[in-house]
């Protein structure tokens, strides 16, 4: 839930500061879009840190038209062309789960975060693709997955489709209204049967504590930054499992955390990011 994400509607009934990750686009796409053969100038160093190979979307949003990515498959094809989607497995699940069903307003098929209410957003599609690619080997049929900060329910639904009815996908979120909305969204999607049979579920819970009831997990995704990796999440990660989590305070890294077969932990940095803190619901709902 990155600070540079699109803001939720000012008329939203709550003031919680929860929001997904910021949008960004590859520079070669922007050059083609603008008809310029030269590389766009880099953003000032004070702007939001970038994901590797990306430039900030919010500076270029004015150049989009709805016709540019008006279909879910066209969006996935775009993500494939520019390297965010690298495998057939991730392409298939993103084509199956229609992003439009999880975006209450706005244009769902552009590579940008979109507001979902309560000052929260659904992450940009390239961020969903990045996380799915990092976790795909730990989202095999029959495996267990945890999505911390599940928001609209989109990524949790993707997890559920990948682990299948014999697996388990759990989304946890601080805001009860977002949990209710996620349930409604999923019921309209291809993941609806998995919700009905209980292999996909959403819960109001403190993300720092995980969700022990369905642990251990082969895959854990965290959508807010922690100063350090929460021990309960490490404890709930299965040996040979993987967690993707932003770690840090002002300067943060998207970390890939692997628990080895002997229980030891290996960590590597995948990207520089800036996310809102992983904190209590009361802290998130305070006035800015």
UniProtKB/TrEMBL annotation:
Top EC class for this record: transferase
GO BP of this protein: methylation; protein repair
EC number assigned by the record: 2.1.1.77
One of the record's GO molecular function terms: protein-L-isoaspartate (D-aspartate) O-methyltransferase activity
Swiss-Prot/TrEMBL keywords: Methyltransferase, S-adenosyl-L-methionine, Transferase
Classification via PROSITE patterns: PCMT (PS01279)
Stretches for region Disordered: 31-50
UniProt keyword annotation of Methyltransferase present: yes
Catalyzed reaction equations: [protein]-L-isoaspartate + S-adenosyl-L-methionine = [protein]-L-isoaspartate alpha-methyl ester + S-adenosyl-L-homocysteine
A Pfam family this chain is assigned to: PCMT
Skewed-composition ranges (Pro residues): 38-47
Domain of life according to the entry: Eukaryota
InterPro entries in UniProt: PCMT, SAM-dependent_MTases_sf
Family membership: Belongs to the methyltransferase superfamily. L-isoaspartyl/D-aspartyl protein methyltransferase family.
NCBIfam families registered for this protein in UniProt: pimt (TIGR00080)
Protein name, entry field: Protein-L-isoaspartate O-methyltransferase
Origin organism lineage: Eukaryota, Viridiplantae, Streptophyta, Embryophyta, Tracheophyta
């Amino acid at each position: 839930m990155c600070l540079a994400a699109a803001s939720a509607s000012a008329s939203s009934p709550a003031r919680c500061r929860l929001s997904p990750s910021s949008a960004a686009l590859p520079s070669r796409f922007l050059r083609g879009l603008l008809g310029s053969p030269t590389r766009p100038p880099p953003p000032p160093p004070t702007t939001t840190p970038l994901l590797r190979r990306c430039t900030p979307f919010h500076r270029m949003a004015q150049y989009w038209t709805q016709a540019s990515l008006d279909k879910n498959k066209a969006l996935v094809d775009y993500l494939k062309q520019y390297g965010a989607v690298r495998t057939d497995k991730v392409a298939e699940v993103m084509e199956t789960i229609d992003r439009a069903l999880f975006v209450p307003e706005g244009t769902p098929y552009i590579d940008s975060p979109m507001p979902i209410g309560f000052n929260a957003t659904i992450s940009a599609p390239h961020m969903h693709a990045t996380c799915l690619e990092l976790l795909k080997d730990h989202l095999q049929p029959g495996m267990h997955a945890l999505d911390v900060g599940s928001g609209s329910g989109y990524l949790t639904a993707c997890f559920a489709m990948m682990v299948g009815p014999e697996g388990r996908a759990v989304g946890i979120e601080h805001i009860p209204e977002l949990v209710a909305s996620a349930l409604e969204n999923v019921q309209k999607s291809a993941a609806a049967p998995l919700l009905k049979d209980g292999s996909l579920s959403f819960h109001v819970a403190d993300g720092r504590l995980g969700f022990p009831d369905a642990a251990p997990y082969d895959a854990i995704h965290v959508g807010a930054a922690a100063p350090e990796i929460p021990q309960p999440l490490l404890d709930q990660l299965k040996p040979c499992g993987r967690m993707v989590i932003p770690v840090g305070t002002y300067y943060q890294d998207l970390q890939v955390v692997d628990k080895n077969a002997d229980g030891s932990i290996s960590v590597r940095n995948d990207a520089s990011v800036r996310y809102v803190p992983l904190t209590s619901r009361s802290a998130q709902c305070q006035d800015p």
